Each structure stands twice: as C-alpha cells, then as structure tokens.
Task: structure prediction
Amino acid sequence: MATKLIDSLTGSKDQYKVNDQAKRYTLKDHGFIETKNGSFQYERTLSSVISDKTAPKLKITISKDLKELKLVTVTANGLKKIDIFKDTDLKQAQLMVENILNTFVEESVLEKV
Result:
C-alpha cells in the first residue's frame, strides 16, 4: 500500500498527516501493529457489534520512518475500497471513523491539515 505525506479517506474533506511528535511506542500504545517491513498498521471494524461480519473496516498504515501514511476504508473482507461518506446507511461507521481520527489527533499521532 503506497503511503503519502498527506492523505484523506475517500469522500472525506479532511486531510491528515503523521504528527511530528508521533513515536513508535505511541503508535503501539494506540493499537498499531508493527509489520515485518517496519511500517505500522491499524485496523478497526466500524461497528459497535463485535460479531458484525458485514461492517466496513478502517485501515491506517504509517511508514517505518513515521513520515507518511495511508488512510482507507474497505469492505468487511478487506478486498475493496469503499466510500462510507456517500452511503447514509453507514452513518454509524462515519461517526466511528471521525471519533477514531479525532482521538489520534488529540493524542498527537495524526495531525489535521
């Protein structure tokens, strides 16, 4: 997955970049997992029901040098990118994404551009 200095979710007007204060341990404390190539990946199902097998997922990838990121929402199986902001049935997913990203901004993981 190609990373960029600034990225946004499909359909969203908000853009984000990795905060200069972000550290490896901060990412791990917030649920990011370090991959074999050294990058950090966060994945979260966008549903309040844990067993929901149809809910879309939020995926965030941050490069190993903590300079670039990739934001994407995908289908439940993770194979297809989707725009959760154009479907009114996905209002709960939209709120969850906004809350997650706002938390990451407050915790100096991401920065809104």
Notes: Residues 91-106 form the longest helix (16 residues). DSSP finds two helices and six strands in the chain. The mean pLDDT is 92. Residues 9 and 72 are 6 Å apart (CA to CA).
